[in-house]
Specification:
Elements: H1 14-23, H2 27-38, H3 43-69, H4 71-78, E1 84-90, E2 99-105, H5 123-136, E3 139-145, H6 147-153, H7 155-171, E4 178-182, E5 193-196, H8 199-202, H9 204-227, H10 233-236, H11 242-251, H12 262-278
Parallel strand pairs: 1-4, 4-5
Antiparallel strand pairs: 1-2, 2-3
Helix pairs in contact: 1-3, 2-3, 5-9, 6-7, 11-12
Length: 279
């Protein structure tokens, strides 16, 4: 968008200046507005100048932060590695629902402001970022492991299998040469891998994978909430909150609860005992 500059001697109304600042997207637009504000004697214009300079500085800090999140990937690029995928899983701790993993190959240059570990991003921004990641990514893969599988193999193996499925899904749409993985090594994959402790806070590709996986799983839990409305899945996404635990005690587990998890197993046992006593 081009900023409509006033002709010499014409001062734009403050309402128009506020709108121009709100709509400004690039550094060039902000700098042009700052120049206009600086020549305007009104107190309102000076306040807008401070806001515009703050946005410029904030943007510069965010670009620097994103550059740090891309440091390892960029080093691999310099070595000639291409198709670098970040991999992360979500949903290990909940008492209900699947475990989900994401795998994402980002382009060489990104402007995903606010990109971070999905747990540190507010829900509304997570959804926006998930959409933007899918729009700009070279490839996105999702891997999901059901409650039944979790109960059969345990949550640790299930989370690794979700990662393997995410990478396999990604490989169908993008050429992958290297994996950056959050604190894990993905089994059944012959690609070189780098495991990074707290990788979703240190690497942009892993953070992107955590966000698309989180939004995918949260959406799934909201659908399950319609099927099993007594448990409030749309609010807690299956985690063991006080509300969820109270619903478990009141109604017993439903088909999407993880019966290999002790709180669910205990609630089911008590529910069976109550049923037997009433019988």
């Amino acid at each position: 968008m081009s900023i409509d500059q006033p002709t010499e001697g014409r001062v734009r109304p403050l309402s128009m200046l506020r709108e121009a600042l709100r709509d400004a997207r690039s550094d060039a637009e902000l700098e042009a507005l700052i120049e206009e504000f600086a020549g305007d004697p009104r107190a309102g214009a000076r306040a807008l100048e401070i806001r515009a300079r703050g946005r410029l500085e904030s943007g510069a800090r965010e670009r620097e932060r994103l550059s740090g999140l891309l440091a390892l990937r960029d080093e691999l690029y310099r070595r000639g590695v291409r198709g670098i995928a970040g991999v992360d899983e979500v949903g290990v701790g909940p008492l209900a629902g699947p475990v989900v993993a994401g795998a994402v190959v980002l382009p060489a240059r990104i402007e995903l402001y606010g990109l971070d570990d999905s747990k540190r991003v507010r829900p509304s921004l997570r959804h926006t970022l998930a959409r933007d990641i899918r729009e700009v990514a070279i490839g996105v893969g999702i891997g999901e492991v059901s409650v039944e599988e979790i109960d059969q193999v345990g949550i640790y193996q299930a989370s690794l299998e979700a990662m393997r499925r995410a990478v396999a899904s990604l490989a169908r749409t993008a050429e992958v040469e290297h994996l950056l993985v959050d604190a894990r090594t993905v089994p059944g994959v012959s690609l070189p891998q780098t495991s990074i402790i707290k990788g979703d806070q240190k690497d942009a590709s892993i953070a992107a994978a955590s966000i698309v996986a989180k939004v995918h799983r949260d959406t799934h839990m909201e659908l399950l909430a319609r099927r099993y409305p007594a448990y409030g899945f749309e609010r807690h996404k299956g985690y063991g909150t006080a509300t969820h635990m109270a619903a478990l005690e009141r109604h017993g587990p439903c088909p999407v609860h993880r019966r290999s998890f002790a709180p669910v197993e205990n609630a089911e046992r008590r529910s069976s005992m109550d049923t037997s006593a009433r019988g």
